[in-house]
């Protein structure tokens, strides 16, 4: 049966742990045999994969994070979407597309229990890894549940041109926020927040973050969606109104190692203004996913939400795509196209 | 009618604003005429008054705090209990005791709408300013509402020998906490937490706070009741278990001016462990007060709660009592006895 597939698949591996910032030298490409799926398994030909900030923490140390870390010499993994090309599992017909956890390789042998069928007619495949995937879901959970978004809120979002931030800004407006302010690095990105991503104000944090925030929200903010910590969080503590809320986004937490995490000044504002500061990690909130998918798919269909991706071609360029994303080279969700949607 | 009272009353005034730590030079005693109560007013002979950490912030600057600040040359005020000696207001008969906001003087002309009758048969008068007053209520709100105390929790409380802390420790045990850990300055106070205030472990924070906390709660803590911020908060962020909660107590917030507030390192723990950090100010939670008074009065009657006070005699010593409290000279609630409970 497997005669129609290659005997081996390329797999991106962790060549070494980064000392400081990760670089291309930390990645390597190996080959693994492609074996026949046993019952309950699917052989998947990957089409797209996601490169996520949380990868960095998993590469860095053997210290226990909130997910498993990679081993030196072993394969990387992460969210991907591919076509089922073999396997006999109910509900996963050959030819359907599934979202699963074994990216960073051309072919993956996937436990069907860890895979979800996605419908390419409901939304394009890249969206299922972006605004309809973990990225969009993170934005949704942070706004709706952790941040308790209310009608009329003024919302501030950091890293607003990134995958989570650009989704959060659009969702916030559609969920009733009165005013949505985003920050990004550089004038070009700040402008793009306003012209293409629906933010009321885009702030270039490299110019003047506290001043920009004060000018954008002279009466203060109600909700801060934090993607970066540090000086952004300090500026937000000052801008928050009484009873304000901070959602600390766990998706990007591993961008900074624990030791690097800068001290947060003026936390006394949290007492004086009765703030609520809450960390969240999206996998605790799976119960919200059906509601999220229903609403966002509908917004995508009507064009009320625009999904932005930065797509890099070729598994051999996946490491570059990841490294570029870490330094803010992407707008919206950063993806790698591993293969065509259909083999002709 | 007022022939039976002195023509004037002593009033403690703000002589000058403190530059740095407050000292005796910032206080003065003046005299004001005692006038006849108009309809709706009560003339009250003060018996006890409270000295509170929040006074400091109100002395310091003209910067807007969450309550009004004192004016130089003007009277101080604060919680007090006294005997109604004149006035004709329904529900406030002459001879009853009321709790009101005009302490720091022998006699006060009190708007009855700002006074509450207290029952000396239900609990001794000092308790109505301490464990049954704002102090105890702060502890209760912080544990029950902001901290979301749950059966079986391990709770850590800073400034545990102080007024709020010593109440919080006892309440936590009675409300179902499995293990209650307190910190205080010095070995004597730490010992006293265990021997007299019902804490399972008392930590001398001057010796080794992180080490003491790790030893006292090897499996981590669920709830941190924060009375001090700073290094205590950092130590707690590390000790908190996943999903842990921090209640930032607003009562003592003014102890430190905003500029002095030390930066909090390792706030990334809040993301990694999905912590909830929440500031609160007790006056937002008046709806809880009846439940609080009922439960705590009952605990006092059965002896399950012990109320501790440090009582200083004489209005002329009120400034000293306040200054001593600021440097930790008190155990439990710091009060001043202004006059006898009954004039013979």
Fill in the keyword field for this structure.
10 helices; globular; NADP-dependent oxidoreductase (chains A, B); 7-stranded mixed β-sheet; alpha/beta; ADH_N_2 (chains A, B); oxidoreductase (chains A, B); homodimer; GroES-like_sf (chains A, B); 28% helix
The protein's oligomeric status is homodimer
Which two chains have the most extensive interface, and how many residues on each?
Answer: A-B, 32 and 32 residues
- As a whole number of angstroms, the C-alpha radius of gyration of chain A is 21 Å
Low-confidence runs of chain A = 253-259
Shape of chain A: globular
Number of strands of chain A: 15
Q: Compute the number of helices of chain A.
A: 10
User: Which structural category do the helix and sheet elements of chain A fall into?
Assistant: alpha/beta
Mean pLDDT of chain A: 91
Biggest beta sheet summary of chain A? 7 strands, mixed
How much beta of chain A, percentage-wise?
A: 25-35%
Q: Distance N terminus to C terminus of chain A? A: 19 Å
Q: What is the string of helix and strand elements of chain A?
A: EEEHEEEEHHEHEHEHEHEHEHEHE
**Helix share, percent of chain A:** 25-40%
């Amino acid at each position: 049966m497997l005669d129609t597939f290659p005997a081996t698949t390329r797999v991106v591996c962790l060549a070494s742990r980064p000392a400081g910032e990760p670089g291309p030298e930390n990645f390597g490409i190996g080959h693994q045999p492609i074996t026949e799926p046993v019952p309950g398994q699917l052989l998947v030909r990957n089409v797209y994969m996601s490169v996520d900030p949380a990868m960095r923490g998993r590469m860095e140390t053997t210290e226990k994070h909130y997910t498993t870390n990679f081993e030196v010499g072993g394969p990387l993994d992460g969210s991907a979407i591919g076509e089922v090309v073999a396997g006999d599992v109910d509900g996963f017909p050959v030819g359907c597309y599934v979202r699963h956890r074994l990216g960073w390789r051309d072919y993956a042998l996937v436990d069907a229990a860890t895979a979800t069928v996605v419908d390419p007619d409901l939304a394009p495949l890249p969206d299922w890894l972006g605004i309809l995937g973990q990225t969009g879901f993170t934005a949704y959970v942070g706004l709706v549940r952790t941040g308790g978004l209310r009608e009329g809120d003024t919302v501030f979002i950091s890293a607003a041109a990134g995958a989570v931030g650009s989704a959060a800004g659009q969702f916030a407006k559609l969920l009733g926020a009165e005013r949505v302010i985003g920050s990004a690095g550089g004038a070009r990105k700040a402008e793009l927040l306003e012209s293409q991503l629906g933010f009321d104000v885009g702030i270039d944090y490299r110019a003047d973050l506290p001043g920009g925030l004060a000018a954008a929200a002279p009466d203060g903010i109600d909700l801060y969606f934090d993607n970066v910590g540090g000086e952004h969080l300090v500026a937000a503590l000052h801008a928050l109104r009484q009873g304000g809320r901070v959602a600390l986004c766990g998706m990007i937490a591993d961008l900074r190692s624990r030791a690097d995490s800068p001290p947060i000044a003026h936390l006394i504002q949290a007492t004086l203004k009765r703030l609520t500061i809450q960390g969240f990690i999206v996998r605790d909130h799976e119960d919200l996913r059906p509601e999220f998918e229903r609403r966002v798919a509908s917004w995508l269909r009507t064009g009320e939400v625009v999904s932005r991706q930065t797509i890099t071609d070729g598994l051999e360029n996946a490491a570059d795509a990841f490294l570029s994303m870490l330094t803010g080279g992407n707008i919206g969700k950063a993806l790698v196209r591993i293969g065509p949607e259909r083999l002709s």
